[in-house]
């Protein structure tokens, strides 16, 4: 089963998640390619697709959105899963009592649900390092309020990511 894990990452946390998903799928016997969305022109020839992006202000990165738009027919014709990374910190619920991961779903999840009919959509916690910020993002890093809202650290929950990837691999395994 030839599977593509396509991702859009700004500072590397989402790339790390995509790589880990690819490793789990490969360890389960699937043929896997892990590639950046912006590096992909032709995505035909795969049996399944996993597409993920970092989320900023409730939106996937442009490269991921463009990737889906360009390849919507191919993606919709095969099994597809979507993931997002973004929330940092360890809180389970936000100040309004909502589940943090549910509240962090990108707008694209609802749009792509109708277009692609994904078999699963998952939000994962991300990582944030104030020192890695560049460009206009660096301006925000020095604001005390931003440092309070965006705690620094790697909050990716590897067992959760690996379990999700393993469930995909199990679903893609041929019946014996």
Automatic annotation (TrEMBL):
Enzyme class of the recorded protein, top EC level: oxidoreductase
GO MF, any single term: FMN binding
Signal peptide: none
Alphabetical list of SUPFAM superfamilies matching this protein: Flavoproteins
Boundaries of every Flavodoxin-like domain copy: 3-169
Keyword line: Oxidoreductase
Keyword Oxidoreductase: yes
Cited InterPro entries: Flavodoxin/NO_synth, Flavodoxin_dom, Flavoprotein-like_sf, Protoporphyrinogen_IX_DH
Superkingdom field: Bacteria
Pfam families, A to Z: Flavodoxin_5
EC code(s) of this entry: 1.3.5.3
Keyword Zinc: no
GO biological process terms on file: heme biosynthetic process
Protein name (record): Menaquinone-dependent protoporphyrinogen oxidase
Native species: Leifsonia shinshuensis
Highest classification ranks of the organism: Bacteria, Bacillati, Actinomycetota, Actinomycetes, Micrococcales
